[in-house]
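Entry 14. Structure prediction run on the chain below.
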Amino acid sequence: MRDPISRQRLKSIVGGSIGNLVEWYDWYAYSAFAIYFSVSFFPEGDQTAQLLKTAGIFALGFIMRPIGGWLFGSVSDRLGRKYAMTMSVILMSFGSLLIAIIPSYDTIGIFAPVLLLIARLLQGLSVGGEYGVSATYLSEVATREHRGFYSSFQYVTLVGGQILALGVQLILQLFILTDDELREWGWRIPFAIGGGLSLIAFYIRSSLQETEAFLHVPPSIRSRRNPVADLLKHPKAIMTVVGLTLGGTLAFYTYTTYMQKFLVNSVGLPIRDATLLSFLSLIVFALMQPLFGSLSDRIGRKPLLIGFGILATLLTVPILTLLPSLETEWQIFLVMVAALVIVSGYTSINAIVKAELFPTSIRTLGVGLPYAITVAIFGGSAEYIALWFKDIGKEEYFFYYVSGCTLISLVLYVFMADTKGKSRMETDTSTADKAV
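Output returned:
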């Protein structure tokens, strides 16, 4: 009996992770190719101004993430993790395909950026739900002794989506299209690919089994009409998610999504070199997640979070100040990897920590909604704020902003309980849900 159970768990983890990878590929393709398509939607201004406007739409896409966290979190806690995951990936497919076919500003004028905004809002709605649902699903299908390890694959595939987006970009840059062709029409290719991959992910997810934890929740509990009111009965857990996410998400988006533009716009690297360095560093970053997740199963979640908080607070300003002064790409790569090692103390375990804070009946909503609100405010605005500070000649202010936010999170890490030892996932379902 042991082998079939193990194979089924592996299938669930692989299936949930692949869908997560496709969703995040679609999300990150926008950021990876913004440097090419910004002129198609905002033809006036210099490169920084065009990127600033494109980053504005990137940030607006984050506004939909709390709505997605609420919508898909409620659906997941009522109808099941599997159902919510399949619906979110279909919505992402539609948003990506829409971006792929939008005419440029020269063709339809102001309607071009308007349609881009609509597509991005749909993607934001989808990915806002994806985080909470996939984090809950992976946490619930994992064994108790290895939850940190298995749940870390959420960020393996989350980062993997960004790696895939950059990989497609590198292939187009190096082997298929010229820079002019990429700016004219080639940037549409990754979004068409993303739309097709989302349909494949839908098929994979439709064959997954529901988690036992969800099936053990009585139907009378699932059908409650006001899940948000139930969630608000856990204010300490909600504020823990907010504080946990604040510094971590800002550091993550700074060293991943924004880094490629920072290397071009501030360090002065050619686009292709910046893409290659980002691609290689993210591969190392993805490989680190299971290692840190497994470490948390041994020593607890809290030591990793505190280590991240201390190092990110102290070293963010020196790292971002140092990068433009480095002479070789090899030196730049090593510093980028060092920064991502620090961030791994947060990314590898943040999903399981949040899942361990809530009872089963509101777990997806509890993980997804406060996280999405925090990410919308701080993660979604990171790139815009960084570019704005650069535009006014005060780029270093952004470095201190990131450091200050991680300091706030560090305070929470110090005083929070270690969820590995006090997990709501260990509480009997009926007992936990009665407490809601």
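Residues 148 and 352 are 6 Å apart (CA to CA).
Filed with the rest of this week's runs.
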